[in-house]
Structures are given as structure tokens and as C-alpha cells.
């Protein structure tokens, strides 16, 4: 066990990313209100938990005050766990200036009687701390000569280091001589890590704050001749490596705290007497320190890890997030800690929205080892429903912050004000990020089942999905029983926080029908909803349709509800209700602003909708005829838009591989459908074959194709296709790499982020991670480019294919 590996301060992991801002006043995580330095606060808190310090009264520590020799004696005795021996030493006179009336007589006498091994020794000699030869030279503390101790004099750094070096088991024989008596002690202490983070001179006086850091270092420094640190070998504590600190939740009513940690994929909650914990430690990996009784003391961050704390502020996809204008790659299989449970980025990425605090932990190799999502407590203390209509000036959720007034307020993922709050909103408090998150996520349907019972359900089933019920929602659900219609109020991560009669509030959950027959349908919500297992919800049930209607329902946008168990009521949505034009630059639709966290989807024909971003919308405006659906939020702003083929990015582009249909006139069962696929860098031999009825498609044509949600005999149909137009003789200099625009004739075309580039001479596709990189390779190969585009720039057209020779 390597106990010397200590970062300079418990918050150093956050400092590595250069993102830490310390608050003015008391340091985060301290029980003492007058310590502003976070490292000192953490050291003092550990010593408080071990009974070494208790402050100076009234929650004060006085970190800048000097420490007397007598006070240091008491700390040394207590850190050795020998305080119970102190009363027996009060009636002895060892030093002339530590008389019967001195408050620290017992501690000074005991400290001078203990040896470096921790045992009591003969006190016949009372030499000095300054290395003078004496039979008791291996004692912990000595006098200053002439039978005195100078108990009330401020202790020097050299004296303090000498004493704690002896506590670690070093004797006079281990200390080399130097120009001053303390040089040898400082040298040994520097080598073993005892003085890490402290650069004082030996004759400098020691403050109470510096003493706290010195004693904290002692706990995690190896004892002489051992590979175990003082906390483990002498005090019976434990260190557990590779532990991730997930949460420290405080019960506002009882004042008790609960810490949650993870080791591997297992979580546990050791006991703790801590009342506060630095938020900069949340999500950090390191060594968990516990005392001899198993109480959690602290987490010591791994010095080889690099921790980044970012806030999502842009596009999120299945393999990246955007923060501060930077696109940060996260592989789908990357482990994620969310709500105290292990999951993967693939399962949670769509939950992330603007304003989500995210912690990224990179290991020694620079690989992203895991992601920690700061989230609200699971306890009912951290969740609240606005039962009455807010007045627009007072935050009804302010009590969640426990008296803090410097919290941030977010609603549906964007910064908000109290004027944005509405009746039946649900709020959760993230103590780590100091954010109150508010959501108006609701779902109306049939209350199908309760577990373990309807009187006190911990889970309930609606529309075939099981959701977690928070304790605060149990009273709301009491009037309802399975079979009733009910509106559920959700937290932002899919937990039921309340329930209402549908006459008070209803949902308008919008989804797309992925599969549909007369007796079975699957509907995927546009905005992800998570069930009790943390899985994205897909609603299933009997739509009660005839076969002809069911066939037409596949791929349609619908609102979802349920009147009977196992049934789904689907109401089709269309673009008829949308009027006006979307102005992309001003981000308004019919002069109504779009929400800051507007989510936009695009589909081609009856293909599956895919989320898009503003940088994909290269056209200046979108007419209402191309908007299939537009939904508004609580403030009357548009927060969901569904477009009909406006970017061209939902097609798979390449060179066509067309297979004509075949039919044997002598055998009606001997036939095959005409099919189409494309060849490109991802599918050099051709991708998934799509059934097509079009006779206009020919092999080797440059095309784009989109797959329908509909199937025929288990094979997907073609939803739409587009023939690409070409322009040859385009020079490499016509490209602006900063704007990614290419001049073709008199027009400027954006180059698609997914452009495919083909070398006709070698017969190979250029390989790179992005279309821009592939395009640069093609430009480097030849100055003569043939480019293929789908539409005019005004209609959102882009360069989709490039061929060089």
C-alpha cells in the first residue's frame, strides 16, 4: 500500500482542469466557518473527526493564529490515541514551568513520557527538543533545558516536524546532523512526505491551519520501516483504492448525513460523522480513508487521474457532448455514474441537456475511464412539487437549498427565473452543483399496477412501463387505484414525484409509431423518458385499428394516451397547425421565439425521425409546409420542432447498386422485389438493401437513399431517394477550410460533415473519422475535383460526394 501518494489538497483533482473557483468565506466541506482555504478546511475536518481538534468554540478554528507548544502536545497525544492516559499524568511535576494550575500539565507530562514506539518511558532526564544527547533521546517530546518546557511559547515549524517525525517512529539515530539542529528532521520529513505542501523555514512559527495540514500529512505518511501509513498501522484505519465518491446527502430535518461510494461497479454507504464535504470531491476517484470503526473520513484523489468538470452547452450525441464550444468524444460503452448507479453513456446520452454538470475522469494513459453525472439526491428532502400557483417573485423551491441563496435555477435544462415557475412543476436540488432543477414533465394514462401495493407503492406501471415512485408521491397516489386515470409528475430523470387527477393537468407526450398492426403498436417518445430500470421508454399496446389504418400509422407522429390496460390511444399530428416561416438566423417561428433548449427532429417520408442541430440547417428559412410538428413549452416558446426533409442529412449517399425485380410467370411464388443500396466509404460493397418500386434508379448513379420504418417480409422499404447533380473541374483552392464552403460556379456550397470521397484511380475510398478530414485527403491527392450535391444552397443543399483521379 502506497500511503505517500497525496495530492496537495483534497480538491486538487478539480484544480487539474483549471475549473475550480473557491467561494468567498467558509470553504466548502468545512465544519469550521472561519476557514477559507479548502485544503486547510479538509485537513481540519479530518482531525475533527478523529478527535484531534475541536476548534476554539462557536464553530471557529482560527487558522491564522499561532499554536503553542502545549497545544501541539495535546494534538500529538490525541493523534496517537493516548488521550485516555492523560489524567494519570496531572499530578506529576516534570517541568518547573508546567505547574499544577496549567491546563495542559497532563498532556505535556504524557507527551514527554511517551517514546517513539508509543510506550511510556522513564522520565529521569528532561533534556530538550533540540537534539541534545540524553538517555531519553527517543522520547516523543523533550524540554528546552534547565528543567523547563516553555508551554505557552509559539511552537516553531522545526520543533513540530521533529515531534511528528518521532511519532512516525524515527529516533535520534535516524537523523543526520546539519548546520541547525532541525535540518536532519526536515530532510527526513521531506523524503517521506510529512511536509508535503508546506515550505516553511525551521525557525518559523506554526499557525493552527499549518499544523492541521502537517497532522493530516502524518496520517497518510508511512510509519518507519513499514509500507503502511500511520492511519492504517497505528490507528487501525483503512484505505480503499479506486473508490469513486458519488454523494454526501444531508437530511435537512435530522441533520444526519449519508455518504455513497463505489468500488468497481459495487456501491456502499459507510457510516460518517461528516456534516459537509467539498463538492469538488464528488465524482472523483481515489483512496477512501476510514477510521478504526469504519467511519468515512475523506477521499484522497488519485494523483495520476485528470478530472474535468464541464457543463453541457451544445449538441449531445451518442458519442460526444459539447461544452464551451468544444466537442468532447465519449464512447458509447464508457461507464457512467448516474443517481448512484452504474450505467453507460449509450443509455444516458439523450438525457443530457444544456446546463447539465458533467465530470469526466481520465486515467494515467489519458483514456476517459468514466463519466459522473451530478444529480439530485434520491431522498424526498431534495424533491418538491409546486402545489400552489407561484406568485412570480418568490421561489417556492428555495428551501431545497438548505438556506443557501447562491444557487442556480434551471427549468427543462435552461437557466430560468422564478417568473418561469408554474403550478405542478417538480424541482430537485443538486447539492454538488448547487442547482435547483425544475421540470414540467408529465404523463397521463391508465394506472395499471403498483408494487408492492397501492397503499405504499415504490413502483407503478403506466402504459406498460414501470416507473420509480418517490416517497413524496405516495400521498398523492393514495386516492387512486389501479384502473384509474391519473397524471404523473416526473423529475427530470424519470422518477414519479407526484400525481394528479387528469382534470387538473394532462400530458401531451409526442412520439413516432415505429411498428403498428391491428393488434400491436410500438411508439417511441420524441423526448426520452426513462423507466425504473433506467431504460429509454418505448410504449407498446393494442391500438385498436383495422389493418388498413394500422399500415398507414407506421412512421406517423402521434400523441400518446391510454384508456384501458394493454391499449394505446394514438392521435395523429400534422403540420396543419403550424403557420408562418422559421427564421433560422433569429430563431423564431412566425415571430415566436424558439426556446433556448429547443430540440429539432427531421424525417424523410415515413422514416424514423432523427435529432438535428442548427449547424445542419444551412438554409436561411424553413416554410411551414416543411414543418410537421411544432410544440410549445410553459413560456409559449417553441421547444420541439419536427421537419420534413430540410437538411438532406438523413440520406445515405453513395453510388447506387440497383437490383431489378424478378418474377417467374410460370410460378407466382417465384419472385423478388426490386432493391436499391449504395456504396460508399462505410459500405464499399453496398449497405442494407431497401425494397423499391422506382424504375428510375440505375447502378453507379450518384444517389441518396433513406430507409422507411415500414417493412415487407422483414425487409425495409425505400422511404425516399434523391439523384445527385455533379460539377467537374473544381479546384482545391475553391474551398475555404474555415467555413467549410466550396465555390461551385457562382454558388457557395457547404461541404457535408459526412461527405464521402472516392479515388477513381485506385478504386478506394478515402478513410478518416470525419467528412472534413476525408475531403482534405482528396484535395491533397488532386487539384481537380468532381463534386456531387443534392440541392441548391438555398434549399439546404450540400456537397455529398467527391471523386478525384
Secondary structure layout:
Blueprint: H1 12-16, H2 38-49, H3 69-79, H4 105-113, H5 157-167, H6 183-192, H7 208-219, H8 230-233, E1 238-250, E2 257-263, E3 266-268, E4 285-290, E5 296-301, E6 306-311, E7 320-323, E8 326-329, E9 335-338, E10 341-344, H9 345-348, E11 357-362, E12 368-373, E13 383-385, E14 408-411, E15 414-415, E16 426-430, E17 435-439, E18 442-451, E19 459-462, E20 465-468, H10 474-477, E21 485-490, E22 496-500, E23 510-516, E24 521-525, E25 539-541, H11 547-553, E26 557-561, E27 569-572, E28 581-583, E29 588-589, E30 592-603, E31 610-612, E32 621-623, E33 627-632, E34 638-644, E35 652-659, E36 662-663, E37 671-672, E38 675-679, E39 690-691, E40 702-712, E41 715-723, E42 725-731, E43 735-736, E44 741-744, E45 747-759, E46 764-765, H12 771-781, E47 784-789, E48 799-804
Parallel strand pairs: 9-12, 14-17, 30-34, 45-48
Antiparallel strand pairs: 1-2, 1-4, 2-3, 4-5, 6-11, 7-8, 9-10, 11-12, 13-16, 14-15, 16-17, 18-19, 18-21, 19-20, 21-22, 23-24, 23-26, 24-25, 26-27, 28-29, 28-32, 29-30, 30-31, 33-34, 35-38, 35-40, 36-37, 38-39, 40-41, 42-47, 43-44, 44-45, 45-46, 47-48
Structural account:
This protein has 805 residues and is mainly beta. The chain has 8 domains: 216 residues, no CATH class; 64 residues; 68 residues, Beta Barrel (OB fold (Dihydrolipoamide Acetyltransferase, E2P)); 53 residues, no CATH class; 59 residues, OB fold (Dihydrolipoamide Acetyltransferase, E2P) (Beta Barrel), CATH 2.40.50; 70 residues, no CATH class; 70 residues; 80 residues, OB fold (Dihydrolipoamide Acetyltransferase, E2P) (Beta Barrel). The protein is built from 12 helices and 48 strands. About 5% of the residues have low confidence. Keywords: Repeat, Signal.
Amino acid at each position: 500500500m502506497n500511503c505517500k501518494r497525496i495530492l496537495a489538497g483534497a480538491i486538487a483533482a478539480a484544480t487539474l482542469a483549471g475549473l475550480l473557483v473557491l467561494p468567498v468565506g467558509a470553504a466548502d466541506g468545512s465544519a469550521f466557518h472561519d476557514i477559507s482555504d479548502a485544503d486547510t478546511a479538509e485537513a481540519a475536518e479530518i482531525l475533527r473527526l478523529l478527535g484531534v481538534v475541536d476548534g476554539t468554540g462557536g464553530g471557529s478554528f482560527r487558522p491564522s493564529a499561532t499554536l503553542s507548544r502545549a497545544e501541539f502536545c495535546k494534538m500529538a497525544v490525541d493523534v496517537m490515541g493516548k488521550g485516555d492516559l492523560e489524567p494519570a499524568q496531572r499530578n506529576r511535576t516534570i517541568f518547573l514551568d508546567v505547574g499544577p494550575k496549567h491546563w495542559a500539565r497532563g498532556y505535556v507530562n504524557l507527551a514527554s513520557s511517551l517514546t517513539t514506539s508509543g510506550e511510556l518511558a522513564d522520565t529521569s532526564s528532561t533534556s530538550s527538543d533540540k537534539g541534545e544527547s540524553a538517555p531519553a533521546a527517543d522520547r516523543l517530546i523533550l524540554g528546552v533545558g534547565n528543567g523547563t518546557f516553555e508551554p505557552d511559547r509559539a511552537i516553531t515549524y522545526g520543533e513540530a516536524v521533529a515531534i511528528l517525525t518521532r511519532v512516525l517512529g524515527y529516533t535520534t539515530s535516524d537523523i543526520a546532523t546539519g548546520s541547525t539542529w532541525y535540518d536532519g528532521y526536515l530532510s527526513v520529513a521531506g523524503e517521506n512526505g510529512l511536509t508535503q505542501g508546506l515550505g516553511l523555514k525551521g525557525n518559523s512559527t506554526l499557525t493552527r491551519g499549518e499544523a492541521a495540514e502537517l497532522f493530516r500529512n502524518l496520517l497518510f505518511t508511512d510509519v518507519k520501516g513499514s509500507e503502511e501509513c500511520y492511519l492504517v498501522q497505528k490507528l487501525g484505519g483503512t484505505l480503499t483504492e479506486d473508490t469513486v465518491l458519488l454523494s454526501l446527502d444531508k437530511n435537512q430535518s435530522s441533520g444526519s448525513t449519508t455518504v455513497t461510494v463505489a468500488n468497481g461497479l459495487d456501491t456502499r454507504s459507510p457510516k460518517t460523522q461528516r456534516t459537509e464535504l467539498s463538492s469538488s470531491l464528488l465524482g472523483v476517484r481515489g483512496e477512501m480513508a476510514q477510521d478504526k470503526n469504519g467511519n468515512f473520513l475523506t477521499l484522497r484523489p488519485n494523483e495520476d487521474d485528470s478530472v474535468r468538470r464541464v457543463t453541457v452547452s451544445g449538441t449531445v450525441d451518442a458519442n460526444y457532448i459539447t461544452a464551451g464550444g468544444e466537442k468532447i468524444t465519449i464512447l458509447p460503452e464508457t461507464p457512467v455514474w448516474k443517481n448512484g448507479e452504474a450505467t453507460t453513456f449509450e443509455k444516458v446520452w439523450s438525457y443530457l441537456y444544456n446546463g447539465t454538470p458533467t465530470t469526466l475522469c481520465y486515467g494515467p494513459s489519458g483514456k476517459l475511464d468514466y463519466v459522473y453525472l451530478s444529480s439530485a439526491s434520491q431522498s424526498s428532502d431534495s424533491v418538491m412539487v409546486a402545489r400552489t400557483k407561484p406568485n412570480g417573485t418568490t421561489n417556492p423551491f428555495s428551501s431545497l437549498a438548505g438556506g443557501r441563496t447562491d444557487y442556480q435555477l434551471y427549468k427543462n435544462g435552461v437557466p430560468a427565473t422564478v417568473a418561469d415557475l408554474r403550478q405542478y412543476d417538480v424541482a430537485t436540488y443538486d447539492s454538488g452543483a448547487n442547482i435547483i432543477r425544475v421540470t414540467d414533465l408529465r404523463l397521463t394514462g391508465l394506472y395499471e399496477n403498483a408494487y408492492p401495493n397501492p397503499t405504499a407503492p415504490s413502483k407503478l406501471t403506466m402504459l406498460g412501463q414501470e416507473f420509480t415512485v418517490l416517497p413524496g408521491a405516495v400521498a398523492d397516489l393514495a386516492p387512486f387505484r389501479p384502473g384509474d386515470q391519473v397524471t404523473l409528475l416526473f423529475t427530470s430523470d424519470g422518477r414519479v414525484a407526484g400525481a394528479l387527477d387528469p382534470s387538473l393537468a394532462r400530458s401531451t407526450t409526442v412520439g413516432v409509431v415505429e411498428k403498428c398492426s391491428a393488434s400491436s403498436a410500438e411508439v417511441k417518445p420524441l423526448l426520452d423518458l426513462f423507466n425504473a430500470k433506467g431504460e429509454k421508454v418505448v410504449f407498446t399496446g393494442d391500438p385498436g385499428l383495422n389493418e388498413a389504418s394500422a399500415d398507414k400509422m407506421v412512421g406517423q407522429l402521434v400523441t400518446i394516451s391510454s384508456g384501458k390496460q394493454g391499449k394505446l390511444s394514438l392521435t395523429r399530428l400534422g403540420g396543419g397547425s403550424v403557420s408562418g416561416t422559421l427564421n433560422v438566423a433569429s430563431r423564431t417561428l412566425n415571430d415566436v421565439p424558439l426556446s433556448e433548449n429547443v430540440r429539432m427532429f427531421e424525417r424523410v417520408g415515413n422514416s424514423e425521425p432523427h435529432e438535428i442541430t442548427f449547424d445542419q440547417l444551412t438554409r436561411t428559412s424553413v416554410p411551414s409546409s416543411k414543418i410537421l410538428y411544432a410544440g410549445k413549452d410553459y413560456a409559449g416558446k417553441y421547444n420541439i420542432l419536427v421537419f420534413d426533409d430540410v437538411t438532406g442529412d438523413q440520406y445515405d449517399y453513395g453510388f447506387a447498386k440497383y437490383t431489378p425485380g424478378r418474377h417467374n410467370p410460370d410460378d407466382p411464388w417465384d419472385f423478388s422485389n426490386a432493391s436499391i443500396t449504395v456504396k460508399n466509404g462505410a459500405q464499399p460493397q453496398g449497405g442494407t438493401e431497401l425494397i423499391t418500386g422506382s424504375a428510375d434508379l440505375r447502378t453507379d448513379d450518384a444517389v441518396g437513399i433513406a430507409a422507411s420504418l415500414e417493412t415487407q417480409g422483414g425487409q425495409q422499404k425505400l422511404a425516399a431517394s434523391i439523384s445527385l447533380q455533379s460539377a467537374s473541374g473544381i479546384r482545391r483552392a475553391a474551398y475555404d477550410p474555415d467555413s467549410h464552403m466550396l465555390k461551385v460556379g457562382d454558388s457557395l456550397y457547404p461541404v457535408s460533415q459526412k461527405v464521402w470521397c472516392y479515388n477513381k484511380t485506385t478504386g478506394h475510398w478515402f478513410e478518416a473519422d470525419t467528412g472534413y478530414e476525408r475531403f482534405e485527403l482528396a484535395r491533397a491527392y488532386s487539384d481537380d475535383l468532381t463534386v456531387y450535391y443534392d440541392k441548391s444552397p438555398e434549399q439546404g443543399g450540400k456537397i455529398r460526394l467527391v471523386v478525384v483521379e
